[in-house]
Structures are given as C-alpha cells and as structure tokens.
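dude i think i finally got it to work??
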Amino acid sequence: MEKNRKLSFEVSFEQPPTAEIAMAGFLFYCNGRFLQQQLVQKNRLEFNLADGNTKAAESAREISTGELRLLIAPVTDKNIFKVTSIEGLEKYKAYEPVIKKNADGLLSILPIPGNISVFWPRCYCRVTGKVSKWFQTGGSWENRAVCRAKVHICDVDAIRYWIYKIPDRIIAKIPAAFLNPKELVRHPIPIPDPPPFTLNRFSMAKQPAIFKKITAENKIMDQAAALPELSLEIRQSFASQNLDRIRETIINNYVILHPWFCLWPWWWPYFYRLQELAVDYTDANGRFDVNVSYHCFRDKPDIYIWVEYLINGSWEIIYHPPIPCNIRWNYACATPINIQVTDPRVPGNCCCNCSLPGDLVWIRTVSLSTSVSHIKQTSEVLPPPGQSTGYDRIGLTDAPAAGDPSYLPTAVNDYKRPFGGKPSLYMGFGSSLPNNSIYHYRWSYKQIKDADLNDVSDSFKPLEPIGGTVNKGYQFEYTDSNGDIQSAPNSVKLGPFTVGPNDNLYIIPPERPNMAPFNAPETSPDWHEQTDNMFTMHFDSATLKNGALPGGDGLYEFKLELFDQAGNLLSNVPKSTFKVPDFDNAGFSVNAPDALLINTSATTASAFKVLMRFDNGQCQGEIFTVEVNGAPASLDCCGFAKYKPGGVEADLSLSFEATHPNNFAVFSFGVVRGTCDEVLSSANANGMVIDDAMGYVLTSGVYEKHLTPAALLGECYLNGTGKAAFAQNLYVTAMATDGHSRQSNKDAGDVAAFALEP
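look at this
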C-alpha cells in the first residue's frame, strides 16, 4: 500500500445505468472490522487511512491490500451511512470487487456487474389495507377493526440475487423431493381462516365403512396431484444433477414452484428471505397506508405482511402466516390488503373520541376479557350441570376463555372458574385526570381464605408488577435522513413511586403523552393503549418470583385506592367516581355497587375492592388397564383382553384417573373402535372432576364404568365371535383463566389402546 496511506479506485459499470446513481464505498479488514466509508465522486473512490476517521493504530501500521475488503453500494437510502458491518450492507445489494495492484503499484477494481447494478435503482409503491377480526356480539358476528396494531411490511428478496449463496447440499435435495412425491415431508398447506359463523367445508361426514381410513401413501399422492404440473423441461433439469442448472431452473420457474415449496417448512429460510420495507400502525379504522421502495428492475414488489399487537405492555405477534403461501406476488400498488387476525388476545375496542369524561375511574376487566362485574362476590354452593356435588362459587367468574374445549361450556351466571397464571387489571381514566385531587392509584391485596376456603388472617400488601415497573408506551413521528415521515416507540414510567407519606403509587396518565405530567417532547405522540381502557397492573399469581401471591391458591381481596398529587390517601371519594361495566353490556359503565366499595357512606367511599379466587393447581390424568371380571385383563402391556373366558361373557370395566387438587378441572374420556372414527357413546364421558359423570363412578379420583362386550363391540360383536381394537383418549383440562386465556399449561392427559377377543 502507498506510504501516504491513500487508496484510490476508478468506479465504473459493465452496463451504464439509465440515470445517475449515488454510491459509497465501505472499507473493512478481511476479518470484517470496519475501517472507513467514503462517497464515490466523479467515478472515483478514495480512502485515506491517515485521516481522523481512522484510528491512529490503523494509520501507523503498514497494511497489505490483500488484508482489505471493499464494498460499494447505492445511497438511495441514507440509512446506509449508519452501517458499519458487511452483514448490514447485504440488504443494499453491495458489490464486493477484488482489489488488484499492477506492476506500477496502482490499484484497480473491475466494473460493477450488470446483474448487481440492476438492483440499485429504487421505485416507490403505496401499500395500504386493513386489519380486522371477527367478534361475536350476542347472537351475531361482527367484523371489527383492530386499531393500534403494528404492521410489518416486507418484500421478498429476489432469488436471483442470492440463490448462489444457498449451500449445495440444500440444492442437491430438491430434485428427489420434486420428482418423487412419495418422499414429501408433508406440511398442510394453510388455508385462510373462514369467518367464525360458517360451517367447516372441509369436514368429512361419518362413513359406515369399516376401512374408512386411507393409507399414508394415498394421502401423499392426493396432495401431490393438487400441485402444479411440472413441465418436461423442469423435470429434465432437476434430473440433470447439475447444481447450477438446477439453480437456474428454480429462478426461471419460481412462481410455479411456490406451492411445492409450501410443503417444506425447513426449506423456507433458504428460499424466502424478507426485507422489511416499512412499519406502520393501524388507525381507529384498522387502516394502514405507507409508501415503500423497491428495486425498479422488478415489475412490482412481492409483499409479505406480519402483525404485532401490544398485549399486557409488550408487543406480541398476532399474525405471522407461512411465508411462501401468503406472499402478494407482483403486488399491484395501492390495492387494499385485508388481514383477518384470529388471535384471541386481540380486543375489538377501537373507537373515535371515546375518552371518559371528568374524574371517572372505570375498573373494567381482568386481562381485557373478563368483566369485573362477572366475578361472584358472595358465597353460593351449587353443583356443576348434570352432576350433584356442589362447590362454593365465591370469587369465580362465568366468563369464557380462549382455549376452552367443547366440554367446558360457559353460561352467564354459571360461576365456575377460578383465576390463575399472569392476569392484568384493566382500567379507564377520565379526561380531567390526573389533577391535584386525583393523581395516583395503587393496587394492593390480602388473602381472605385458603384453597379450601378456610379463613386466613392477613393484611393488605402492595401488588407487585411483573418486571418491577409499569410503563405506558406511545408512538411518535419523526423525519428520517431521507426526509420521510416515520414512526417510532417510546414509553413513560407510571410507577411505582414513593410520594409523600405513601409508596407503591402509580401516576394516572393524561389523555395524551404530551400533556402534564409527562410532556412528551416528540412530534404527534399517541398512546398505544388509550387511557379509557388500559392495563394498570400485570402480576404473576403462580410463580414465587415476580411478585406472586405468597399465600398460594385461595380467595383474595384486591383493593384500588386513589391519592392526590402530594401522595395523600383519599378517603372520601364520591361513590359515583368508581365505575364498573354493565353486567349485560360491558361497553356501558354503571356506578360500582356497594359490594365493590370499601367504607361506604350515602355518597362516598374510600376505595374499590373485588374478590377473586386463584387456583394454579396441576391436573393429573391416567388411563388404567381394562378389567375382566374385576381383574386386569393382562399382565403385559400388549392390551389384549378376552371377553369370554371359559366361554362365559365377562363383565368389562374401563377406568381412568382425572384429578385436580381443588377440583377445578373438567375431563373428557373417549373410546374409538377400529378405523371407522366411530365414537362409543356408551363408553364416553365428560364432566367436572368433582363428581360421578355419565355412568362413571368416582372413587378417590378414579372413574370406573362397567360395560358388556356387546356394548363395546357393537357391529363387530358378531354374536359373540367377533373382535375389535379400541383407542382410549383422556383429556383433563384446567378451568383457571388469566382473564383472557385458559391456563392450558396445567392440563394432563393420556392415551391407551386395547383389543377384545373371545
């Protein structure tokens, strides 16, 4: 290298571009360490390792050009100047030449290839659409907008640019998979979720045929028959064993091959690379609308979209379908993209100008779905429907939960399920808050009874949030280096704070982040969750770390108190300040009844309260060996049972364990005969684990039912000469909810099989 520490290169193109392209060069060590970046000026790129942009140590030592890596890229996106890694330049389709030195010591590089520079010019496309979700309201379904969702808009990177980076071992596997469908690694091609009110068109009617089940080979062939036909030319190329020819065949027939690639999820990372073009947030109508750039050489961008939503204070993925089957190929710019999400955690509460008036404090729900008005506040002993053993319903809810199976039906006023997991407490605050009089809130709790509903002596303790703090996020606008308007997130801390004489206080947020006391300085800030319905506390009821309920399962009282700006407790709050959802329509508020208030007078109260029963017990489930005349049918695990020992028909009994420490579980036990998908109603049962159910007698957690061979064998009985095989499936399902989703991690189950012969 020249002793003056300067490098100079002439930059040219194999195929001159139709318009001038601004370019920059990036210099790295061969180990990837960044050295310097410079603009290409008048077709020349110059670096000076002795200038102030390079460390003194670099400028002091002699460096061989063989130790350097040079990359040249377009600067149509000014964010490129923030890049300091070779990996970061990949998205800009950078060209990496080999640095040459001639006999005179002059440096040179070859012209930029046309198959790279073709990717550099950028065009713009408008991507617009709507995010919505079906909700059931009463007896009808309504497709509601999903507002404040984070929409990630991505382009599928052109395979021609990077297919030669796919390892040979992956390319070599393609021909066998395409030419021999029997070897397919099957993965169901996803279909769009139907509206929830339609029948499943893909369900199959029950068939009486004994051999209803088809073979795996037939199913594979049926799937292959539905795929696009491969031409003779494609087949010949795949059979050539020439990896470069196979690569070119994939490039030239990429659209035809997508339905095939959809069957192999493990190939997707190799054949589908995404570039995120933009992130937008849906408005009150669920709409997103943004301009994105793409490579002009292509017809139009290939758009793939995934969506996040703020749930309990953190962004969670709610829509991320399989990539190859959900790409809008050659997207027609400005064509609406309508996305239906099905995630049960997403609410349908978008509204315009829906702030609460005045100083109101509306205690709404537990984890967005369970209204506080649907939590039983008094003792009432009732049995489950169809069973006779009663249990106390105090602190339980009648609300359904995401993940409920069909054998866990819910009905209004059937208070059956406890709380568990990690619930959140949602509230709404009036537009006049915070003010000097009502400025802070605090949640606290105490245990009233243990898991068996025995009285417990306890005092109120502050409810500790998961993570130690409660933050409220907001979105704001800014202008990027290209002069375009972009969005970005930020947050403020609500608490806990010690203010005056009290600790563990949380600030009531104003209507907008740029209002006191937060005064967010950014442009157009807006809360992710509006103050009329926001989460105020997220706690862990099960794990001893993260501020769990130390008393374990049982009945707890939760208290909400209000404080002024100086941190003084308010003890004479107008009763009309505290609101709860209307029992019949949670979208309407009503004054909190005295049963949900503390220290009430004719017009005032000191706090809000609610009783909630928690149970994080683990279910147990096990299927036992079939018994013949009261004894196990077999001492081995082969599952054969003779139903006519000594020529006399035996008494058969099926038994299983289905338990939960405090009986807050339901079970479903099913028996299927042979391959006909025929469910035996005489042997099946479901119910709550508290009592006998459908002919099964419960004794110490074990259910047992006696059946005749004819009842089990049915059409296979053949006057006492037939035989058949049976499958038994047991599901023991926890009933606890976090207020939105059932705590399925507490479930149990078992599978077993047996065969009857004379």
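Residues 6-120 form a domain with the Immunoglobulin-like fold (CATH 2.60.40).
im so relieved honestly
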